Amino acid sequence: MIKHIVLFKLKNFATNEEKQVKEQEIKDALLALKDKIEVLKSIEVGINANPNEDYNIALTTSFESFDDLKTYAEHPDHQAVIPLIRAVLESRACSDYEV
Fold first, then answer.
1. What is the pTM of this model?
2. What domain range includes position 87?
3. Rounded to an integer, what distance in angstroms lies between the CA atom of residue 33 and that of residue 89?
């Protein structure tokens, strides 16, 4: 099994409310992929609750193989979520490991 972990740090927003709305929009879009991409075995999306940390959103997904991870990455529904994130993305960190 492959775990794919991604952390997203978003750009600053004019208001905290604007930030919360965008975080939730991204979370909802990512979670919707579970019903659209068959190779996606599990998905969890968390919005950071610790104000002392820099990253806003954590994504944890699992796949049977690296080939399935590649299929997910290239899937049109996954590709459709990327511009939503990139529009407000400051930085991203990722780790893929075998369980």
1. 0.94
2. 2-98
3. 19
